[in-house]
């Protein structure tokens, strides 16, 4: 059979005839099952509508449950009702046509002009909603029909489904239009007038917007479930349909017995309510229909709408097999391209082996194995799955032939996709090689945390097993971790050392520190090094050089103080890194050299020796760094931010000084002597000057504290090497926390009438302390008032992150939807896939793939010159 | 004052018939697949382009130095 190609999709409105034609049963009985539990004929579970209970057969197609797709039935409504979805359109049609002759309320020439305009916009694929609005505006204003001359009355539309006609504009007397009246009027509109309202007469007749017959969806669309208690629980749609039928029957009975008009009208109203909520249970203006438990019913519209609706929930997003999810934890001993998979997970997931003459022996072995990794299922060429158990193992191994598929458990060396939400960029899903390990968490090398943005405070990640050879090959070639070391965002390494890796290498390579043979061998033990020159002592730089490929590079390290004149290799701080031919001669390895997002060395290795060498370097680097830091020991404690009495006094003095200057500023302001800055008011100037003064004070305090916190201080080591934290953090711990702010200003809020932040201050106090300046340090502790200001500033931070994530998430979603069909063609243009519309004539204007660029630039001229010079001399 | 004299307004010029032909052949697209610019756009009025004309825009670019862009004038 050839696959059918869909040429076009057209949406139309079901006509009553069409609804009856596709119906297999007229439904009029509100009962669903009889006392024996069989579906009632003419009820909502009628077996002509299809079957869901196993054992029963469909009366229409004779199919069993699962085979029969289900068939539509219909309900004959005793009185017509408005379809909520079309109510607004009905309102437009009623106001836009003559109440007597049904013609559009404008001259034919004018009508044709609008129809032409609509067709022109349709052909261009543009929205013609504006034209329709214009038609509505013009026709609504007409007082007299230009065709028959009849007086027109204003139509009032009351959401969701009521229409009124204003009989007398003076007294504002209104008359309700019943759905029957509405339908009669819509019937009168001629086909020729319809295009002016945006309707295609070949597809739609306006009177179909008023329902006279209601389609009943097949039972397969609204299956009932059997609860544990054995009770049947019906679908929400079935409940709603029962309501409709019940009211419908009551209406018929009352009408036939000649009940008073009022009762009939109430019933009609009720029928309208039920049909409305059946279509959409979230219409504004009427209470949603509820389940007995009080939960609003999920009716037709609710099934489609929103995140868990049919489109976003079931069609664009589905749940998958061959996947696993658990908590992640670190393991620096596995490669960055590996992932540790718990034994329990490995036993559950499977990889198919497609049996061929070449691998039949291997496949047979798996079938015969009694221990993991063993075969869990075999699939015969006819598609039958057979579970491999002890009793049939040998028999199946015997029968195995090319063409069979053996599903074996996951084992070391398999390729899997590993993902952490939110998947914001392509590095959020990368391919790893499996390492089956004990315990219950996924293990990953901490160096791959940055691209996933993962940490180990309880993060969970997902794992997927590709099931075809093509998918596995694709994963290995395109998605492998090592292919993502360089980021397509900025053309630099996104993978690299974090935290302890940086500290470890810093400790190792700082200065000319020497390590004994024992130490050195322990550092290098885990690495796969073939040649280590025998020596009694090794310097840290020598040890680090063992893992370096043969690169040559010179750069300033993160610890660089930024001296006015760089002394390069003679730097006193050992902050200028010189690597020649794979030997670290000078400088300290820190964040700038191996860190994630920075890593100049990693960058250089990728460019010179490729991804595989870079992967190996990162593996060796993490292992080495972790061993160094564990052997040397590294710790911080509260006494790391201790500073001598002297320093504390100095800091107090500085702050007191600053506060005094603030007072002077305030005084100047009060006396009107403050000179405003250009473009600012006096008040703004005062605030800015005060903020500036207090900022300076904190920095000065930090400097004083910094003098007493030397480079032998663990916290300082982490801050300067870029491993974790900053000097600012240390300043706040040791010296002074500084100004707290809300919305970039000093804290000004509080009890509005008294003009003060808290009751500890006088009104209009503008001093530093009264506006959120904290002179204490985290270590010394905060006063109650300071603590309050700190909480205010802290709260803003929390709110900001919460708001930012939700906003940027939605922005990302819209961006992806807008850009998903764009592709860079071979000629360098960016085009939309379906229409071929050109978006850019050259990708990014320069045609450069940022991943293959040097940190965003097309060519790294310096590097080329260096390499040429090397070859020459 | 001419808009084109402003430093933030890049150079706009109307492409000749043959040049348009050549461009479309090179890209393998129809005119309608080019990016569009409204005839009511001030710069389009200034250079006197009519709907159906193709405009060549030479811009300064942060990434490429100079970049060339084309737009079809539409109503």
Walkthrough of the structure:
With 873 residues, chain A is α+β, with helices and mostly antiparallel strands. Chain A folds into 6 domains: 24-71 and 217-309, DNA Excision Repair, Uvrb, Chain A (Irregular), CATH 4.10.860.120; 84-206, no CATH class; 323-484, Barwin-like endoglucanases, CATH 2.40.40.20; 500-632, RNA polymerase Rpb1, domain 3 (Enzyme I, Chain A, domain 2, Orthogonal Bundle); 638-799, RNA polymerase Rpb1 funnel domain (Topoisomerase I, Chain A, domain 4, Orthogonal Bundle), CATH 1.10.132.30; 821-873, no CATH class. Helices cover 37% and strands 14% of the residues of chain A. Chain A has 26 helices and 29 strands. A 6-stranded mixed β-sheet of chain A has the order 9-15-14-17-8-16. Chain A has a 4-stranded antiparallel β-sheet with strand order 10-13-11-12. Chain A has a 3-stranded antiparallel β-sheet with strand order 2-3-4. In chain A, a hairpin with a 2-residue loop joins β24 (741-742) and β25 (745-746). In chain A, α2 (87-96) packs across α4 (129-141) and α16 (517-524) crosses α20. Chain A is globular, with a radius of gyration of 38 Å. The relative contact order of chain A is 0.05. The mean pLDDT of chain A is 87. The mean pLDDT of chain B is 89. Chain B contains 2 helices and 4 strands; from the N terminus they run βαβαββ. Chain B has a single domain (3-74), classed as Eukaryotic RPB6 RNA polymerase subunit, CATH 3.90.940. The chains are: A alpha+beta (873), B alpha+beta (75). Chain A binds chain B through residues 827, 829, 831, 835-839, 841-842, 844-848, and chain B through 27, 29, 33-35, 59, 61, 63-65, 67-70.
Write a short abstract of this structure.
Chain A is α+β, with helices and mostly antiparallel strands and 873 residues long. In chain A, the strands form ten sheets. In chain A, strands 9-15-14-17-8-16 form a six-stranded mixed sheet. Chain A has a four-stranded antiparallel sheet with strand order 10-13-11-12.
